[in-house]
Amino acid sequence: MQAMKRSTKPASKTLVCTDFKVTYPNSQKSDQAHGDSVKTSAGSEPALQKSPFRSKDKPDALDTEFLIEPAAAWKAMAQYSNFIIYGEKYSISDDVYVRHQGTPEKDASEGDYWVAKILEVRASSSSNVMTRVMWYYSPKDLPKKKGMSTGARAYHGRHELIASNHMDVVDVNSFAGKALVVHWLEDDEEELQRGLYWRQTLDHRTSRLSNPRKHCICGKNYNPDRMMVFCSQDDCRIWNHEECLLNDAVTRRLSHDKLPRGAGVGKGKSKRHRQRDQSRPSQRGVSAHLLQGEGEILRLNISDLRPETAEGERISLEDIVCLKCGSNII
Q1: I want to staple 199 with a disulfide (CB 3.0 to 4.6 A). Which of 9, 39, 184, 275 is the partner?
Q2: 243 with 223: CB under 8 angstroms?
Q3: Is the full-model pTM beyond 0.90?
Q4: Per-residue model confidence as pLDDT tens digits over 200-247
Q5: d(Cα 144, Cα 246) in Å, to the nearest integer?
Q6: 16-52 burial, b for 16+ CB within 10 Å, e for fewer?
Q7: What count of other Cβ atoms lies within 10 Å of the Cβ of residue 99?
Q8: Buried/exposed code over 225-258 (b: 16+ C-beta within 10 A; e: otherwise)
Q9: Rounded CA separation 161/70 (Å)
Q10: Mapping DSSP to helix (H, G, I), strand (E, B) and coil, where does residue 22 land?
Q11: Which residues does 107 contact at the CB level (< 8 Å), separation at least 6?
């Protein structure tokens, strides 16, 4: 396969090719994105697309059988491994920004584009280059749960995308440049990605959303735009949500309890923290927040403004205590 060159004016909206339809013949939910019925060509056999998005628990969860109709017209076009458009080279497996109807003509930001991965390139001429892509979903575009105004969950970060097996045929004129999307595994020692990332998958055929890793004693997920604190005790090793630590500190102050209920006494080896949240839980005049001290040591700053609290005890600094094992995290 050779490279295809093309240089024309960029499109102002997504050119999802209406001449070709991607269908999923063996799934419960066939892709009829535009509400059209698609006739299957006689003798057409579905192909298996092995997903480029391999999760740790179920690496083949998004492998998908599909058909492109009309099959004869699609297969009649020559295949290419890459192409050049507006001076930029694109190849199979590249992530790309895609313009759509809501993308501004000028001064568009990253969030104004859709994002997709190139799976296949075909062309009948230099003016007719098509790609089969697999979409990343924005959290707000996920299937909504009952009572939700958007598909985004509380744990979704502002740079987060969701990998799917939803495919379309797209004209390359709608591409707006390459994107860099990394797979965030949520390993304990893995650095948080600052750009676009995915950790969750969506099976477009069934609307099934995979479950991200759960953290803390609350058993909830992690929003990377907020903060967590790591307990490195060998028999513990959990991430504590900042809001859970602060709520626990306030509750303990109100009950005059110096340790989490049920926790033992221990000493953590180290701490690790991520991006700071500004939340300050408060109950009946008692509030708490995390304060960066000397040597980047985090401490709990507790403010107790109740009338009955002695003047010298109204502001105090305390060590952070792991909510699971009770060890000081220093």
Answers
A1: 184
A2: no
A3: no
A4: 999 999 999 999 999 999 999 999 888 889 998 999 999 999 999 999
A5: 30
A6: bbeebbbbbeebeebbeeeeeebeebeebebeebebb
A7: 22
A8: bbbbbbbbbeebebbbbbbbbbbbbbbbbeeeee
A9: 31
A10: strand
A11: none
> Which residues are within 8 A (CB) of 279 and not within 5 positions of it... i.e. 6 or more apart?
226, 242, 243, 246, 289
Nearest to 223 by CA among 151, 162, 155, 161: 155
Structure token pair of residue 100: 């759509």
Q: Which two tokens stand for residue 304?
A: 């107790």
CB of 277 closer than 8 Å to CB of 287: no
The structure tokens 């790309």 sit at 96
Of residues 186, 11, 170, the one with CA closest to residue 94: 170
Region for residue 223 given its phi and psi (left: phi exceeds 0; alpha: psi -120 to 50; beta: otherwise): beta
Query: Residue 316 carries which DSSP code?
Result: E
What are phi and psi for residue 190, nearest 5 degrees? -85, 135
Which residue in 190, 188, 191, 186 sits closest to 269, CA to CA? 188
Segment 46-74, tens digit of pLDDT: 999 999 999 887 889 999 999 999 999 99
Q: What is the DSSP string of 50-105?
A: --S---SS-TTTT-EEEEEESHHHHHHSEEESEEEETTEEEETT-EEEE--TTS-S
Structure tokens at 198: 């995915």
What does pLDDT average to over the chain?
A: 82
Four-CA torsion 33, 25, 207, 183, nearest 10 degrees: -100
Q: What's the per-residue H, E or C state across 228-293?
A: EEECCCCCCCCEEEHHHHHHHHHHHHHHCCCCCCCCCCEECCCCCECCCCCCCCEECCEEEEEEEC
Burial 77-98 (b: 16+ CB within 10 A, else e): beebeebebeeeebebebbbbb
